[in-house]
Amino acid sequence: MAKQNNGAANGYQLPFEKPILRKQGTIADLEADQVENGRDHSAEIRRERAEYVSLLRKIYDNLTPWETVQVARHPQRPLAGDYINRIVKNFVTLHGDRRFADDKALPCGLGRIGQEKVVVLGTHKGRDTNEKIACNFGLPHPEGYRKALRVMKLAEKFKLPVVSLIDTTGAYPGIGSEERGVAEAIAQNLLEMSRLRTPILCIIIGEGGSGGALAVGGVADRIAMLQYAYYSVITPEGCAAILWRTGEKAPEAAKAMKITAKDLKQFDIIDDIITEPLGGAHRNPTEAAGNLERYVAGTLRRLKRIPIEQLLQERYDRWRRMGKVQRHTLQAASAPQ
Length: 337
Hints:
46% of the residues lie in helices and 14% in strands. It is an alpha/beta fold.
């Protein structure tokens, strides 16, 4: 197993992880004293490490929705490009929408996952400052969605399944994006994906935000989420700004919106939850990529055995049954005296 990352690279630590950081410091002090002074702290170190694992599990098994959002945004969390590099063999990038430009926020291409030849889409945020700027911080423009549709049409032509890795807060809402028809591009993708004659698998690996996420995975045969990802019509901060006129209410909004994988599985919005390493994917990207690869390969094998007409009908039926509604009937008022 690959060595775990403590999640505090570059001094970054999530607010709720302070007890974990203190435990890491205790272990580090004992190890340093053992090396420098020759004292035997092996038994104590083993005990502290066991307590560290127990503490990590307790905290991450009881995350609030807002804390889950913070994990999904962790600076060291694997991005779409990281997963593509780790699990997609012989990846060949396809560029441009043949209308305007190539959108680096939405890399698309051909490759192989396990034994399956696939077309891969991924919303990529960028890792360092230059890459983030080039990728527009993971906010695609309409040309990105039109490129994705062009590549999905190639997948249909060559009978290749589509795998979409989503990590975006939404489509870019700037003037240029609106002028070039971002809403129309998203709507067109939804329409075409509903009848695309090839399997579609969508995985939310971090943030799944608004129409920006729907445009490259909302209409799929299977929708899965990593354990500490979130999927929502709007960010918690955006929701709080609308309802309470302040982003400080984001934790309350996150709780009310039911955006975690557990909630969405319960509401039949998603099909599967992919387990992350203990303490989140940022602590062990290799294990996280392995879990993702096994899920994708196994799911594609099952989808490819379904006749295409049946697959399209099930895709339609899935959307017709999505979500659960409670109906309440108002009781008639008492008759007047």
